[in-house]
Amino acid sequence: MDLSDNSLVLEFSQKWVPSFQLRYIGLRSCKLGPTFPKWLQTQNDFGYIDISNTGISDFVRKWLWAKLVVHKGMEIDLSYNYL
Q1: Mean per-residue pLDDT, 10-26
Q2: pTM
Q3: Chain centre to alpha carbon of residue 5
Q4: pLDDT per residue over 20-76, tens digit each?
Q5: What's the maximum distance between 2 C-alpha atoms anywhere in the chain?
Q6: Which of 60, 58, 61, 6 is nearest to 34 (CA)?
Q7: Cα angle for residues 63, 42, 59 (degrees, 5° grid)
Q8: What number of CA atoms fall less than 13 Å from residue 53's CA on the CB side?
Q9: 12 has pLDDT over 80
Q10: Cα–Cα distance between 36 and 64 in angstroms, integer?
Q11: Across residues 73-80, what is the average pLDDT?
């Protein structure tokens, strides 16, 4: 899924659990924040994630660091947020 470089505002309940798995998550410059999107925790197969410049002003969650350890070679971009 690549929705990057849009001015989309993506609002999801913190309890929302998607019924799908994504391998590529491109959401650069979409509005996701201010909290870290909890639904990303349910994604287990991604190799690339770009959530840069998305208005997140939160802590990077421990589960994300754990996924980075398991999925060696994964690319992630969290730049231009307030983490």
Answers
A1: 91
A2: 0.86
A3: 15
A4: 999 999 999 999 989 988 898 898 888 899 999 999 999 888 888 887 766 667 888
A5: 32
A6: 58
A7: 35
A8: 10
A9: yes
A10: 10
A11: 89
Do 60 and 33 meet the contact criterion of CB atoms below 8 Å apart? no
What is the C-alpha separation between 66 and 54, in angstroms, rounded? 22
Cis peptide before 34 (omega within 30 of 0): yes
Taking the C-alpha atoms of residue 45 and residue 8, their distance in angstroms, rounded to an integer, is: 24
- Cβ pair 47, 22 in contact under 8 A: no
Confidence check: pLDDT of 2 > 70: yes
Question: Do 55 and 83 meet the contact criterion of CB atoms below 8 Å apart?
Answer: no
Query: How far apart are the C-alpha atoms of 8 and 1, rounded to whole Å?
Result: 14
Write down the residue that tokens 């590529």 correspond to: 24
Identity at 6, one-letter amino acid code: N
In angstroms, the CA 6 to CA 41 distance is 23
Residue type present at position 35:
T
